């Protein structure tokens, strides 16, 4: 639940999601659920030359099980919040 809570705080921010098939999509995080399924809006493909068929996609739903990485905006990482949440989860509460 730690990551789910953290991603909920990033709704409305721009993120880059790299999939297991090497496709990287950048867009505005619209929503995320407990399975870390992600919905992006205003999307664009990072490598447009390699994936030209994706140029017409503006919104997408990404199943959590196909996500390799989520790159967060540099100012979107609240280290103290993560430390506190990690400590709470480690204690079981």
Automatic annotation (TrEMBL):
Q: Which UniProt keywords apply?
A: mRNA processing, mRNA splicing, Nucleus, Ribonucleoprotein, RNA-binding, Spliceosome
Which SMART domains does its entry note? Sm
Gene3D superfamilies for the chain: 2.30.30.100
Any one GO CC term of the record? Lsm1-7-Pat1 complex
Q: Where in the cell is it found?
A: Nucleus
Q: Name one GO molecular function term.
A: RNA binding
Task: Output the PROSITE patterns linked to this UniProt entry.
Answer: SM (PS52002)
What is a biological process (GO) this protein takes part in? Answer: mRNA splicing, via spliceosome
**The Sm domain, residue ranges:** 2-76
Taxonomy, superkingdom: Eukaryota
Q: What is its main location?
A: nucleus
- Family matches, as InterPro entries: LSM_dom_sf, Sm, Sm_dom_euk/arc, U6_snRNA_Lsm2
> Family per UniProt?
Belongs to the snRNP Sm proteins family.
Q: What's this protein's function? A: Component of LSM protein complexes, which are involved in RNA processing.
Question: Any idea what this protein is called?
Answer: Sm-like protein LSM2
Q: Which organism is it from?
A: Olea europaea subsp. europaea
